[in-house]
Design brief:
Elongation Factor Tu (Ef-tu), domain 3; 7-stranded mixed β-sheet; 21% helix; alpha+beta; Alpha-Beta Plaits; 4 domains; 36 strands; 597 residues
């Protein structure tokens, strides 16, 4: 069904991580009568990527569409984690407003500040949704007041300050205009979208104009470009001009036009101004290019994406166990795969032209951003070695500057002192400290990105898993000097073989082990953490010497502490400059760059 421009509403849902974007979108989809009454519908429907479901976070922006009354509402679900904020930046040009979700208990958080600032700079007038109002400690009025204060702090105009707002629970599936209204369904939010979101700009009768904001790949159709039609209309089979970032022009033919209805893609014969569509037939398209009418060639300004702040070096896997589980182990295959990624993901900067042909440098927003790429490659059958991440420094007027993050920390009150002491050693500056009536201490720090590297693991240990640490890039400042790294050394295997229960039992007093009995190890592999500051070369494959004298029951009394198994992010966070993470489809190991003496 074709909708006129005046009946289209394009919005993006933005929020801090875990404030309920995807769950609210579930309710919007379920109550839009897209599904049969007896149809089984999964939770977090829009999180279709394997890692999104496993991690419980949204990684890629995704588009859906619902019909409400006689309106078509295009909705883009965006990531909440700061490492994927480029996904937010590039879709804001496709929409005319954003639903800003704020947790009724937590209030605005670091990513809330970022996504709101981007929306305000784009001239959008947000709709504020105070979510999770049915939680026990929710304080909707306080959250709304804090959000209004944030609008003022970020320089919102008078028009933007006069934002529409409502209260909701995505999990329970209701929205209300006033906190005391009957809590029935999500319809009040739909009505607010229709009333408050302006129709898309543009002229249906002008020449065709389109700018891709997202790219997809189809085995049969090749590269596909997703974006909003800014002017005019386009039909299947039409000839358009593709203008790339260098201003080069090339004719292309539209082979397929697709839109969305709920979770499904639907093929369209024609689409016009305001529609968010996926176009096929332009094989060399890149995000930010221009598609236009051949008789009216235009070059739109490129989509601006904030620069990466962290980089990582990727090498081939040179360990003795190379090729045991991976299919692709050569530098040629790694380069080929990263070249494909470079064409699809503009938020990553991939340096394939380094003078060192044995290293590929990949830069991104943070360690999680980079680890998602590495984990994806690992699942595709690649093996590689990863070096310790490093921040990207800048030279400004002869001064070296480094990225500074704004970190928000929530911990039980009795852990606050330990956290403040540790972050002070890491050059953190305390900006705010509040303690709630429930004994929860909320702190805000400005801290170098280097100071947070390697800290998250120890933060969870110090706070016994009860602390929450979120951060977002804030600005660059002059270099803060040396920062303490990991204090403990590591236990390094001095020979190859299988680990034995006997050797593991003898070594567990020296520190914590990363391997279990009968695991394969090689010389130079990190098998545990030393309880002291120095690295220690150990023989973890040693067998117990057998004698003719038997001690009753002694062999049966070996009790081993379970090994500490690292996830990919934890391993990248843990290693030091002289260490590498060995990434394979089957296992993640850590090793020294050089063999122990």
């Amino acid at each position: 069904m074709k909708f006129p421009r005046e009946k289209i509403r394009n919005i993006a849902i933005v929020a801090h991580i875990d404030h309920g974007k995807t769950t609210l979108l579930d309710s919007l989809l379920k109550q839009s009568h897209l599904f049969r009454s007896n149809q089984a519908v999964a939770e977090r429907m829009m999180d279709s990527f394997d890692q999104e479901r496993e991690r419980g976070i949204t990684i890629f922006a995704k588009h859906t569409s619902v019909a409400y009354k006689d309106y078509k509402i295009n909705i883009i679900d965006t990531p909440g984690h700061t490492d994927f904020s480029a996904e937010v930046e590039r879709v804001l040009g496709m929409v005319n407003s954003v639903l800003l979700l704020v947790d009724a208990q937590d209030g605005p958080m670091p990513q809330t500040r970022f996504v709101l600032s981007q929306a305000l700079k784009a001239g959008l007038k947000p709709i504020v949704v105070v979510n999770k109002i049915d939680r026990p400690h929710a304080d909707a009025d306080k959250a709304l007041e804090a959000t209004f204060d944030l609008f003022i702090e970020l320089g919102a105009t008078d028009e933007q300050l006069d934002f529409a707002h409502c209260y909701a629970s995505g999990l329970s599936g209701f929205a209300v205009r006033n906190i005391d209204d009957p809590r029935v369904d999500i319809a009040p939010l739909f009505d607010m979208i229709v009333e408050s979101v302006p129709a898309p700009d543009g002229d249906e009768h002008a020449p065709f104009l389109f700018q891709p904001a997202m790219l997809f790949y189809d085995e049969y159709l090749g590269r596909q470009s997703c974006g909003r039609i800014l002017n005019g209309s386009v039909a299947k089979g039409a000839t358009i001009t593709h203008v790339d970032s260098q201003g080069r022009e090339k004719r292309a033919q539209i082979t397929k036009i697709e839109g969305h209805l709920g979770l499904e893609r639907v093929e369209l014969k024609e689409a016009s101004t305001g529609d968010i569509v996926i176009l096929s037939g332009i094989p060399e398209a890149m995000i930010g290019d221009t598609f236009c009418d051949p008789q009216n060639i235009v070059r739109l300004p490129p989509i601006h994406i904030t620069e990466p702040v962290v980089s990582i070096d990727i090498r081939v896997n040179t360990s003795p166990f190379v090729g045991r589980s991976g299919k692709y182990v050569t530098m040629h295959k790694l380069r080929e795969r990263l070249e494909r990624e470079q064409k699809m993901n503009i938020s990553l900067k991939i340096d394939l032209s380094s003078s060192d042909q044995e290293v590929i440098t990949v830069a991104g927003r943070g360690e999680l951003h980079l680890s998602v790429l590495i984990e994806t490659m690992r699942r595709e059958g690649f093996e590689m070695s990863i070096a310790k991440p490093r921040v990207i420094l800048k030279e400004v007027d002869g001064t070296t500057e480094e990225p500074i993050e704004r970190a928000l920390i929530e911990v039980p009150e009795n852990f606050a002192g330990c956290v403040i002491e540790e972050l002070a050693k890491r050059k953190g500056e305390l900006q705010r400290l509040d303690t709630t009536a429930e004994g929860l201490t909320i702190m805000e720090f400005l801290i170098p990105t280097r100071g947070l590297m390697g800290y998250r693991n120890s933060f969870l240990t110090i706070t016994r898993g009860l602390g929450i640490l979120t951060s977002i890039f804030d600005h660059y400042e002059p270099h803060k000097g040396a920062i303490v790294g990991r204090r403990q050394g590591v236990l390094v295997a001095n020979c190859a073989g299988r680990t034995t229960p006997y050797a593991s039992f003898q070594l567990q007093d020296r520190g914590s082990l990363f391997v279990a009995p009968n695991d394969d190890v090689y010389e130079g592999m990190i098998v545990g953490e030393n309880s002291r500051e120095n690295d220690l070369s150990v023989n973890i494959t040693k067998e117990k010497q057998l004698t003719n004298v038997r001690a009753a029951g002694s062999d049966e009394n070996i009790i081993l502490t379970p090994p500490h198994r690292f996830t990919l992010e934890q391993a990248i966070d843990y290693i030091q400059d002289d260490e590498l993470v060995e990434v394979t489809p089957a296992v993640i190991r850590m090793r020294k760059k050089t063999k122990p003496k």
